[in-house]
Specification:
By secondary structure, the protein is mainly β. It has two helices and 14 strands.
């Protein structure tokens, strides 16, 4: 799930009376599994294209438990990354809700099959709150010094999704800052998402202030990302 941010929530179950809570628990399956598949015009991660501004095919699966624990995997094609052309994300964590806030803590392993000194892991936490048509999410990520880097990396972002009236249309905005792998990098995005049953269609403008040399700098320039994502 490197190219996406997941927030798992219990939708306020802690605030319900114990009778209603017991009924909800009884109706909630002990284990659920969900799948997703997407076609995107460009795979962007925190403002940087990992496909050299070309298209990507992405698939994933998520296993969630009634307790709040979850496991998942997600994969996408990438441009040459340490000699690999594929990214496989393996992740797991815990999610819940308290006082109207949804939260999650996740451990991610980013694996690049066939790559050299390219795999790494990251710790990520999210906190989300919905108020009327607006859902705001804070994301914090920490990557400790590992074999493919000599620095710790910190990333923080704020995002907002705004439901637009009665239409199945949502406007999204995000702003993030990263320091470590990229010094004082900012990234931002704005887009629209249209939901048609199990299909999500989106158009997002993505940009960053990163001006690195050679290909990395070109991949950080502004661009529009079209995507079609199915969940089942």
């Amino acid at each position: 799930m490197r190219g996406r941010i997941i927030t798992f929530g219990l939708t306020g179950a802690l605030a319900l009376p114990w009778v209603a809570h017991a009924q909800d628990v009884a109706e909630t399956p002990a284990v659920t599994i969900a799948y997703n598949a997407a076609l995107v015009s460009d795979y962007r991660f925190r403002g940087i294209s990992y496909t050299s501004r070309h298209a990507a095919v992405q698939v994933g699966a998520d296993l969630s438990f009634r307790s709040g624990l979850f496991l998942g995997t997600w994969t996408t094609n990438v441009s040459d990354y340490g000699g690999s052309n594929q990214e496989v994300d393996l992740y797991g964590g815990y999610a819940g809700a308290v006082a109207g806030f949804d939260y999650s803590g996740t451990f991610y392993a980013y694996v690049y099959p066939g790559g050299t000194d390219s795999d790494y892991f990251e710790l990520q936490g999210t906190v989300a709150r919905s108020m009327g048509p607006v859902t705001t999410t804070l994301t914090f990520a920490y990557t400790p010094d590992q074999w493919n880097t000599d620095r710790d990396n910190f990333y923080a972002a704020i995002g907002a999704d705004v439901a637009l009236g009665e239409l199945p249309l949502t406007a999204s905005f995000s702003l993030g800052r990263e320091n470590g792998s990229y010094d004082h990098k900012w990234d931002w995005s704005a887009g629209l998402n249209y939901k048609l049953d199990a299909l999500d269609l989106s158009l997002v403008y993505v940009d960053s202030n990163y001006k690195g040399a050679l290909e990395a700098g070109r991949n950080a320039r502004a661009g529009l990302v079209l995507s079609a994502r199915a969940s089942f």
